Amino acid sequence: MIELHYWPTPNGHKIAMFLEEFGLDYEIHPVNISAGDQFRPEFLAFSPNNRIPAIIDRAPADGGEPVGVFESGAILQYLAEKTGHGTLGDIRGRKTVNEWLFWQVGGLGPMAGQNHHFVQYAPERIDYAMTRYVNETNRLYGVLDRRLAGRAFIAGDTYTIADMACYPWIVPHERQRQNLADFPDLARWFAAIRDRPSTVRAYARGEALRSGPTVNDASRSVLFGQTASSHTK
């Protein structure tokens, strides 16, 4: 049994996509980030960066004590290693999968996240910041579009954790001020993953948790106003 501690954000959806794709037995533990659930001591015990998602594997491969894993990229790697699914079998293939996984966690996610913040949520309209992150998101879309030319998936013919990591960050492309029609290979790949039954199931489970927008006036300070001194042990 995998405990999935998450909220339906792009990083949260990645893990649900893996679990649904490969039919793992899992249980969702909602962490309402708008309400500050990510700062509860019991969550911080296995997710010290107070971010979702995180998992607890109650049946680890070594048969030992339950294993907690935080950081979405690390979780995907852990699950791929545990199950033998979602990656490629040879060293060169795994290298490629990991390159694009790290490209997402170090590039596409952070840049698109800043795009979301300054375009959608920042209380001040800062033209330079909006232009900077919209343009960088656009550049990264171009990188991914070129990578997908002549390939069904990011690593080749096989659907892997690289695809699962990237897809949720393309879902809000309109909010990111991107036009998928400008990226035909990316658009083709996006549609193929969107229509996978496992993707549909993963997103449906997430939507069932929502009772309103993640970011509103009440949640802004929780989501955007934290410092090292905001929460003590």
From TrEMBL:
It holds the Pfam family GST_N. One of its GO terms (molecular function) is oxidoreductase activity. Residues 90-215 form the GST C-terminal domain. Keywords: Oxidoreductase, Transferase. The keyword Oxidoreductase applies. Its EC number is 1.8.4.-. Residues 1-87 form the GST N-terminal domain. It comes from the Bacteria. Belongs to the GST superfamily. This is GST-like protein. The lineage of its organism: Bacteria, Pseudomonadati, Pseudomonadota, Alphaproteobacteria, Acetobacterales.
